[in-house]
Design goal:
Radius of gyration: 36 Å
CATH topology of the largest domain: Immunoglobulin-like
Distance between the termini: 72 Å
Number of helices: 0
Number of domains: 3
Largest sheet: 6 strands, mixed
Helix content: under 10%
Amino acid sequence: SELARDAHVWLTDAEGSTPTAIRLSCHPDPVLVDFGVALCGIHQRLVQRVFLHNESAYKLKVHLDRTINDESSFDFSTELITVSSRDLCELEVFFKPSTEPGMFEEKWNLIVEGVRPFSDVFHVHAQITRANVELSSETVDFGFVPCSGFDLDTIVSIKNVSSRPVRIKARVQNASDGSVQSNVAIVKKDFTLDSDATESFEISLKSSTVIRDIEALICLAVQSPKNCKWITVHAKFRETNLIILCQGREVLHNARSGSFTIDDFYPGEEREILVEFQNNGELEYTIRTYWSHTNHIFDRIHLK
């Protein structure tokens, strides 16, 4: 009763049919008009075509009929259609998806003028499900980040747990006033995710020269602006404040490079040199010390 999603129905002459007393058979009985699974929030009407084949020896006038008291999500044209013998006509059935999930079923009659009606021969069916995705994390915390540093990236996995593909539109906004947060960026802003598929959603934190706390929201509108998932992004931009002293003398103060000279070494002498690292800021450091001449690493220091 369904070929490539289009339903087909054949009317044939029944035994004992005459021009004055037409008798018909309907095949198949019932005729299934199945819209399958649709998602909540789809605004356009879905269309399913029904092809009615008149295999009888007579010209027929047909139309669909139903008895529904309340408002229905299904609709069709009630226009009377003339179908010549050995010809076919096309009927369109419409479905407006509900805003709530559920099963929708109706039974309709096929009326052939001058012939006994085929009662409840059309079985119309649709299922509505809510679009839903799962996030590997709803919070991204970059922690303390040095001003004028490098851009940072992280990944949040998005899995479609719906039975249908979903379209996702993403945007970034400030958590407090709704304005655009320029330090947080996303690569994919509009994409479709197949059922049971997982997408790697990249979030970038752009460098800042200003000391500031970042709290941004990434809105993921799943199929509809009314169905949103949210990712909260936190970061704290801070100035570095590292001081290095050698034997009590400052050789580097919050700079990328510094130098000091010891000019009283004697050949064959061994001496301990006190190097002091002071972290007076909020950023943590991991420092490796080595001689550039031998490229030999001596120690690893972690400063908080």
